[in-house]
Amino acid sequence: MGNVVSRSLTELLGEIGVWQATVLLLGISIGVAVVLEFIVLRSLLRYTKRTETKYDHILVEELRIPIVLTAALTGVFLLTQISSVINNVILTKGQINNFFGRPSLSVILLAWAFAANRIVNRIVDEVKGKDSRFDFAPIFSNIWTLVVSAGTIATLLSVWGYSISPLLGAAGIAGMAVGFAARDTVANFFGGIALYFDDTYKLGDYIKLDTGEAGTVVNVGVRSTTLMTRDEVLITVPNSILNAAKVINQSAPETRKRLRVPIGVAYGTNIDTFEELIIEIASDETLVLDNPKPRMRFRQFGDSALQYELFCWVRAPTQAVKVHHKLNRTIYKRLMDVGIEIPFPQRDVRVTTEDSTDAKAVSTSTDESISSNGDSDSGVKAVENNDTV
């Protein structure tokens, strides 16, 4: 390829002098770079600022520098390929290539690699918060950075005449060593990829692990996921653990959460009045959603109470504890105001002495007797009652 370029330029510029050819090539390169910078690219930047999407502006803005550098340095590189120029300078062909040709190609290569990496990273920053499909985009951004870096280094070595074949063999051996030494990191990396394709959670979701930790997902990285608890404490969980654990996503498929409030009411209570009162309390709570509507369910006949459960919905899982607290307070106050009894377990104990013929009762309830194991002359007998309302 280089010989073809050299012959073509020699035939094209062979009739003019060395200095004229040098000035001509450098002038054309610099002129093209100036036109691209001040006319074409700046006009495109002004136009892309007015478009609805930001992606075209990011593309033009990041490609601006490599395009201008490529146009400006192309003339320098082409000069190193003209035989008449090479034969009329004090430097050898190899020295010209090392001082001018390869450095110009290296700068162009680095500029394009940096721009390619920046384009992907900026697009990832734009899309990662807009849709749940892009929540793991930072992981692919990091992969792209690694690929671009490795490709750039390999290409630079090739430009400067170094063979990368031995490096590839050494890289394979080093890769196996690193794989064994950093198997946890590799497991976390692939765990993050698996979580992405499973669509387990996204940024902003409230999740709960089978180990008991719960919080809002605030960051998803290559190695780990960070949760913010209700105590405003950050918990960092390796992706490999999340991939193997049972994760309860309380924000999916909807962000709302159903709240269960258990309530016990005394036997003999007018259950119709009681149910209407509780529904009214839940409906009046501002944090409780109107749709679906709150409802009551009679669960069972308990030992001490009629067991009810109030079902209502809140906008987010993080509001559940606060709403539960407010409903409990309001229910207790309203039941006390209307005279509806809230039952509780009660224990009656009767104590008798052996010397007394009549039992001395502390409670009037009928209970079971429990004999004590005392060795003294005067024994004590205790009676443990049933729970009463």
Automatic annotation (TrEMBL):
Residue ranges occupied by any Mechanosensitive ion channel MscS domain in the UniProt entry: 184-251
Transmembrane segments: 20-45, 65-86, 106-124, 136-157
Chain residue ranges for the region called Disordered: 352-389
A GO CC term attached to the entry: plasma membrane
Record's compositionally biased regions (Polar residues): 362-376
UniProt superkingdom: Archaea
Keyword rRNA-binding: no
Residues of the Mechanosensitive ion channel MscS C-terminal domain: 260-342
Pfam families: MS_channel_2nd, MS_channel_3rd
Membrane topology: Multi-pass membrane protein
InterPro entries: LSM_dom_sf (IPR010920), MS_channel_C (IPR049278), MscS_archaea/bacteria_type (IPR045275), MscS_beta-dom_sf (IPR023408), MscS_channel_2nd (IPR006685), MscS_channel_C_sf (IPR011066), MscS_channel_TM-2 (IPR011014)
Membership in a protein family: Belongs to the MscS (TC 1.A.23) family.
PANTHER family reported for this sequence: SMALL-CONDUCTANCE MECHANOSENSITIVE CHANNEL
Name the UniProt record assigns to this protein: Mechanosensitive ion channel family protein
Species, as recorded: Halocatena marina
Lineage: Archaea, Methanobacteriati, Methanobacteriota, Stenosarchaea group, Halobacteria
